[in-house]
UniProtKB/TrEMBL annotation:
Family listed: Belongs to the class I-like SAM-binding methyltransferase superfamily. RNA M5U methyltransferase family.
GO molecular function terms attached to this record: RNA binding; RNA methyltransferase activity
Protein's name according to its UniProt entry: S-adenosyl-L-methionine-dependent methyltransferase
GO biological process, one term: RNA processing
Domain of life: Eukaryota
Source organism per UniProt: Gonapodya prolifera (strain JEL478) (Monoblepharis prolifera)
Catalytic residues in the record: C582
Keyword presence, Lipid metabolism: no
Keyword annotations from UniProtKB, A to Z: Methyltransferase, S-adenosyl-L-methionine, Transferase
Residue numbers spanned by region Disordered: 1-35, 44-63, 178-199
Length: 670
């Protein structure tokens, strides 16, 4: 089934026939259902959702009414990239200096409580929100601390089903000051002597004023806080009513005294990004007017108490790639020459909305122009498409850049970013671009997630490979690439693994992953389109117990839903996880859920965190990638296994072994 906006021409959903299904491979049980798994899982998905528990949303009505989130309804953009520059130029959810953003959530069941609305938001990954709900009315007021958080909610929640009703969102107020008398940092005042470029830089790259070494130290200290005594450790100790044996399961936390910053496992020095300037491979540029009223393609300068919408030239920012700056300028020339106005986010009128750029070190570049077509005739739109083609082709040629793909999107929704809810039309070139990572060429679709700093990603994947315990010539490990996106992590590991099984809920990304496997002639991989929490028990059943299994979990920045961790905990055969977190603070509840003592909800033995490695992917900005390794003992009754890394020895030996070798396949064997 195609998702909205997919046509054969735009995105040929290449059917990947595994050229060599390893029928004799003992890793994967010879199961005729395996090839049909994608189809079966979609069917199962329906069954699970109708009959199963809906964690985080206590009311039973969703399931009674048969409310089903079909796979094709799941937004690609549910996986907001870490540090993504949205249309507003935001880099991460951060409070916008005392400002508030208010949104009305409409068409909800009028007897819903505030708790119901909060649970609905939480279930969809929206946690930093204040909810007001008046009894017996069919709407609620959502207040966000930052525009970035509001934008994510607009994108994720709009049209979702709550208690049998499709909710809608409407922005009520932007930039509302928390206290009227308190001026914001960006208000035009005598006291703010920053240049406009500095204001923008403070917003999109808040660490830019500090030397890079200092930025790294700040990030490292913050991660130690998140994992250490004021974060993960204290959250685990705070769990109430534990039995004596459960308390013993937390004994490894004591080793926090032996490692850096109170982190209860080896915490390595942060690895700097190999490039610190112009590194971003993806940007979303707004279109509007700058402080002098000039039409500009750049980043929205937030934080004006008056609610002004100012778009700033991005050319002095440190992180935007040079090709992206050139293409933004080409778009700006087009808009300045156009007779049509830019889109006004407050009035919700006008034409030019957004330019999305994907610019890769491979030299391939994709541009998506987003417009609001409502004020244009069919004929005017047709003319504009031709004019855009000509403008971009000439501009790219003059700058000696490849314009691999030029796309066009008509969007009338409330969300002021790049939405995958409207189709794309190919104006010129190919429907995909490619990037080379660790020697493998990856196809990237417009909506698919791809890491935004290629050289730093290669370092990250090297760590993941080492920590998975993979080494040349052995090939005894099955890698579960959970939240695999376009398959990048698993495919870079495949030649060292017995088999790679990728799980991802976005269909277009799975199509990319399959095509990436085929194009790179990597055959020991399988891809399953589904939610990890629903797929994982079936996947595990197909992996024989005698083999080593490692799961790489690389979720969106807020981590995975609690049900994913529940499912992982319940799979007793899975005892080794390499978790890639792009926002450890936001994902800390996942770490707590992995490590907390066994409970009715979290079955199976708890994991222990065994090492931590930060890598900077976002110079000048606050996010940082963190690779964490988790391991656990086999269940008491489990038979001996062939996997030497799974035999963890005593609980105490995990945390209490500061001499554990780093980088080897078994840090616990020493
Ligand atoms: C940070 S991206 C990582 C993608 C990939 N590992 C990479 O490095 O390019 C997170 C991915 O998780 C997917 N995702 C989020 N929640 C999921 C779930 N419950 N089940 C399956 N995939 C999920 C998103 O669609 C997204 O592609």
């Amino acid at each position: 089934m195609k998702r909205q906006g997919e046509t054969d021409e735009q995105d040929p959903d290449v059917e990947f026939k595994k050229p060599r299904l390893d029928e004799e491979d003992p890793v994967i049980k010879d199961d005729p259902d395996w090839d049909d798994m994608e189809v079966k899982l979609e069917y199962n998905d329906v069954e699970v959702q109708n009959g199963g528990e809906n964690e985080g949303f206590s009311d039973e009505e969703d399931t009674k009414d048969g409310i089903i989130e079909k796979m094709e309804d799941i937004e690609a953009s549910d996986h907001q990239e870490a540090g993504e520059i949205g249309a507003a130029g935001e880099l991460e959810p951060q409070t916008d200096m005392g400002l508030r953003y208010k949104v009305q959530l409409s068409n909800i069941y009028k007897f819903s409580s505030r708790g119901d609305v909060e649970a609905f938001c939480k279930k969809n990954g929206i946690v930093n929100v204040k909810v007001k709900k008046i009894p017996k009315v069919d709407n609620a007021l959502l207040t966000f601390m930052s525009e970035a958080e509001m934008n994510v909610a607009l994108r994720v929640l709009d049209g979702k089903i709550m208690k049998g009703k499709s909710v809608s969102l409407n922005v009520l107020a932007l930039n509302v000051p928390q206290r009227k008398e308190k001026p914001t940092r960006n208000d035009r005042s005598e006291s703010d002597d920053r240049t406009p470029s500095e204001r923008l830089a403070d917003q999109v790259t808040p660490l830019w004023r500090k030397p890079y070494e200092e930025q790294l130290a700040i990030k490292s200290t913050e991660l130690q806080r998140v994992l250490g005594r004021k974060g993960l450790v204290s959250e685990l100790y705070a769990i109430q009513n534990l039995r004596e044996d459960q308390r013993r399961d937390l004994a490894w936390l004591e080793s926090g005294t032996e490692y850096t910053g109170g982190v209860p496992c080896p915490f390595r020095d942060i690895i700097p990004s190999p490039i610190t300037e112009n590194y971003r491979t993806k940007c979303e540029f707004s279109i509007g007017r700058d402080l002098s009223g000039e039409l500009t393609v750049g980043f929205l300068l937030g934080g004006f108490r008056s609610g002004e919408m100012i778009v700033m030239d991005p050319s002095e920012t440190k992180h935007v790639s040079k090709p992206a700056l050139v293409f933004a300028r080409i778009m700006q020339d087009h808009v300045r020459a156009s007779e049509y106005p830019p889109y006004d986010r407050k009035l919700k009128s006008g034409v030019w909305r957004l330019l999305v750029s994907k610019t890769f070190l491979s030299g391939e570049n994709m541009m998506v122009v987003q417009i609001d077509p409502r004020s244009l005739t069919e004929e005017q739109i047709a003319q504009e498409k031709i004019a855009l083609q000509e403008r971009f082709a000439a501009g790219a040629a003059a700058a000696k850049l490849n314009l691999t793909s030029l796309m066009y999107q008509e969007w009338t929704g409330v969300f002021d970013g790049f939405s995958d809810k409207a189709p794309l039309t190919l104006l010129a070139g190919e429907p995909h671009v490619h990037e080379v990572l660790c020697g493998i060429k990856f196809r990237v679709s417009p909506f698919a997630f791809f890491q935004i700093n290629t050289p730093a990603t290669e370092i990250l994947y090297g760590i993941v490979k080492d920590w998975c315990g993979l080494s040349a010539g052995v090939r005894d490990t099955v890698v579960l690439d959970l939240c695999c996106g376009t398959g990048t992590i698993g495919l870079t590991l495949a030649k060292l693994a017995r088999r790679v099984i990728g799980v991802e809920m976005v269909k277009q990304a799975i199509a990319d992953a399959k095509e990436n496997a085929r194009a790179n002639e990597i055959w020991n991989v399988d891809y399953i389109c589904g939610k990890v929490e629903q797929v994982i028990p079936q996947v595990i059943k197909r992996v024989t117990r005698e083999m080593k299994v490692v799961a790489v979990l690389d979720p969106p920045r807020e981590g995975v839903h609690a049900s994913v961790i529940e499912a992982i905990r319940a799979c007793t055969e899975l005892r080794h996880i390499v978790y890639v977190a792009c926002n450890a603070a936001a994902a800390v509840q996942n770490f707590v859920a992995l490590c907390r003592p066994t409970s009715n909800k979290y079955k199976g033995r708890p994991f222990k965190m065994t090492r931590a490695q930060p890598i900077d992917m976002f110079p000048h900005s606050k996010p940082v990638e963190l690779v964490l390794e988790f391991r656990r003992d086999p269940p008491a009754s489990a038979p001996a296994v062939a996997d030497p890394t799974a035999a963890m020895g005593s609980v105490a030996s995990v945390g209490a072994n500061p001499a554990a070798p780093e980088g080897g396949s078994n840090p616990l064997a020493a």
